[in-house]
């Protein structure tokens, strides 16, 4: 790989990396000592320059850091999900300490996501089985959405500020719509079983993958990550312990996956759709690889009944030497720049175009 | 919060859903491995004509069990449970197998039960014992199998189907005779008589060669039985230590002359299907840590087994589905396997499964199979263990798979590692 920039996070194992939505040269990394099992966390603010990647600032927390989200409304602020259940808001103009501390989750906070449309709220998900919505200016949460089991990842829709999705250890993708009344279901509008095959009543044809094998579904496995497609407002990709990435169309909750991406040899820890192409996504896994995929939606596909598309792996980045835990696409430039982090205490910035199999 | 919780959560994320570790993991030796410290069988003899034609199934089993005590020198009181796979015995053979264990020298504290999973009963017996050891229920056990088709094979083997079963087409298919459905399957899957005969002739030739070279000596425990000479009518005691179904000089040409058994234009005949036979086999299993404490010689270890279902009419496809599943469970591929012992119920189905899975001919049944020396139903699964482990050892190879199709549409496969 010709163009690969590298930075180290000595003593800390990264869990998440995010490009700033304001600057193409700024990155943040949430990390933890001792692989996030016990010990402190550290937020690294990195700057990309002609000399490579420089560590510009660091912020320490008492417990591990598992995720971060840049503020969409203030270019200097960044929310961090912490192992003690808190979310801390850091301001790059304020050294050392957070400017806000949001502490309601009773167990580890595993993800944070800023609302990209209204920009005035962010959400968090936790091992305590809840998703909480916050205002950066208020210490108490605005809303709590019950999930009921360890929620590894939650996200706002990039197309609709009221739609919230999450995946959790019970192998389900849940959708909440804040426009619905708070009835008994607390805004829950759909619950998609990730492991299940399409439910086709009165059909004797077993669903098949486009590679010919039958798709009978799988044993439920923990879902660790998911992301909304940036172009199609109904498409979500999920990944998790069963090594498989699946895409779903939320309009058809019982229809099973629309595409299946096979290749990771261990759990998929993080996936992110490309902001530049509607069919491309990147995933980071415990098999120490970052893979770039096409879900196949840009390719012609014979419309056959009960056939699920198998996506294509476009390239594989294997320079990490430990579990890959985070990956993010740069919003700026020609498109294709990716930052990845792993437990090898390294941040790698690289151009996905150099991986693509021609 | 709790560091231990976080650690176990991470552990589950890594181990969950992942394949089971592959070849390197398989070859590891751990104290909690389930190992085989003795595996043997009686000779397998021709049904109705062979040397065991006058020997009851329980007597065969008693002989095999006695031999396993002698060979392993295990204190019989340490064996906590014996499972005997047997298919045709009325009442499941439960009473006479308990009696056989007592005759063999096991104390009354050794429990016995029988089971019937048709042609895989012997393997299922070993798997049940292995699982009981793995779960901590028992420490030492014997998986065994026996069949006296001479004395117990007949139309009484299946109860008359009720109207309810007959009214359900797939259920009714469960009692279609093996030969008939194999004939249909061979036709449907395009397995010609010529390739079946070729496969069958090779089975005979391999078995003849193995027998001449004395390759069965290690696995066969000689048995002294009474035998009535059909010519003179006199009863005498003989020692049986040789498979008598193995015939010399079987070639594709000689098989080509046999008339098809199940259809006029059929392809299946007595020469390319498994023989009706008598025999017994037993496998002594325990944890590696136990074996080391007892000073037992370890022949190999049991890794895992798969059980699958297939349509009843395509029962011959069992191994085709069971083998990939056991690969998934153990994390290995067909390239990692040195020897496949796939039961030759019919040349057609064995060949079809091997071809579909892409298993090279030289890896399958190197000492011949049921076509050459017989398929005593309940015995076969346990018989394959000794056949496999001694051959792996002799050829200095490691990983083996035993597999078979099962009547009514199932398949089973197990992975073993020789040491």
From TrEMBL, chain A:
GO molecular function, one term: peroxisome matrix targeting signal-2 binding
WD repeats: 102-144, 261-294
PROSITE patterns xrefs: WD_REPEATS_2, WD_REPEATS_REGION
Pfam families, per database record: WD40
Keywords, ordered alphabetically: Cytoplasm, Peroxisome, Protein transport, Receptor, Transport, WD repeat
GO annotation terms (biological process): protein import into peroxisome matrix
Superkingdom of origin organism: Eukaryota
Presence of keyword Protein transport: yes
Entry GO CC: cytosol; peroxisomal matrix
Primary site of residence: cytoplasm
InterPro entries: PEX7 (IPR044536), WD40/YVTN_repeat-like_dom_sf (IPR015943), WD40_repeat_dom_sf (IPR036322), WD40_rpt (IPR001680)
UniProt-annotated location(s): Cytoplasm, Cytosol; Peroxisome matrix
UniProt family annotation: Belongs to the WD repeat peroxin-7 family.
Protein name in the entry: Peroxin-7
Automatic annotation (TrEMBL), chain B:
Key words, A-Z: Acyltransferase, Fatty acid metabolism, Lipid metabolism, Peroxisome, Transferase, Transit peptide
Domain Thiolase C-terminal: 297-415
UniProt xrefs under InterPro entries: Thiolase (IPR002155), Thiolase-like (IPR016039), Thiolase-like_sf_Thiolase (IPR050215), Thiolase_AS (IPR020610), Thiolase_C (IPR020617), Thiolase_CS (IPR020613), Thiolase_N (IPR020616)
GO cellular component terms, semicolon-separated: peroxisome
Cofactor(s) annotated in UniProt: K(+)
PROSITE patterns: THIOLASE_2 (PS00737), THIOLASE_3 (PS00099)
Root EC class: transferase
Active site: 119 (acyl-thioester intermediate), 375 (proton acceptor), 405 (proton acceptor)
Thiolase N-terminal domain location: 34-289
Pathway in which this enzyme or protein is active: Lipid metabolism; fatty acid metabolism
Subcellular location: Peroxisome
A GO molecular-function annotation: acetyl-CoA C-acyltransferase activity
One matching Pfam family: Thiolase_C
Keyword field contains Lipid metabolism: yes
Gene3D superfamilies, per database record: 3.40.47.10
Keyword Lipid metabolism: yes
Swiss-Prot/TrEMBL catalytic activity: an acyl-CoA + acetyl-CoA = a 3-oxoacyl-CoA + CoA
GO biological process, one term: fatty acid beta-oxidation
Listed EC numbers: 2.3.1.16
Signal peptide: none
NCBIfam families assigned to the protein according to its UniProt record, in alphabetical order: AcCoA-C-Actrans (TIGR01930)
Family: Belongs to the thiolase-like superfamily. Thiolase family.
Name of the protein described by the UniProt record: acetyl-CoA C-acyltransferase
Species assigned in the record: Podospora anserina (strain S / ATCC MYA-4624 / DSM 980 / FGSC 10383)
